[in-house]
């Protein structure tokens, strides 16, 4: 007879693990890490992705430093960076691939969004 308690394992979950709402490429993660190491990001714990009504076609993406966790945000970690997705943006960005592209004339985050029904000519806004 032993008084030691046996380790109790949690039963396996019947729910499948949900896939991440967006895919962050290694290139995007590298750039996010660079931004988070800058002085203006001091104290930031990640970035916050949102959408805002503006531009020619309705919605555009917003990226801001995240200095705290909001329980309403969807949080994901990929390639050692944390991205918080605002609740109002989640429906519009599910399935999106976020990348960072650099060439001799420009550098920018790009969003390949399968939910987008169209984009404006300048590429600043989209419709879902």
UniProtKB/TrEMBL annotation:
Keywords associated with the record: 4Fe-4S, Iron, Iron-sulfur, Metal-binding
Protein family: Belongs to the HesB/IscA family.
Source domain of life: Eukaryota
PROSITE patterns: HESB
Disordered: annotated segments: 1-22
Entries under NCBIfam families matching the protein: iron-sulfur cluster assembly accessory protein (TIGR00049)
Gene3D superfamilies: HesB-like domain
A GO term, aspect molecular function: 2 iron, 2 sulfur cluster binding
Protein name in UniProt: Core domain-containing protein
Single biological process term from Gene Ontology: iron-sulfur cluster assembly
Secreted found in the keyword field: no
Every Core domain range: 22-124
Biological pathway: Cofactor biosynthesis; iron-sulfur cluster biosynthesis
Entry annotated with the keyword Cytoplasm: no
A Pfam family hit: Fe-S_biosyn
InterPro entries (alphabetical): ATAP, ATAP_core_dom, Fe-S_cluster_asmbl/transfer, FeS_cluster_insertion_CS, HesB-like_dom_sf
Cellular component terms per the entry's GO annotation: mitochondrion
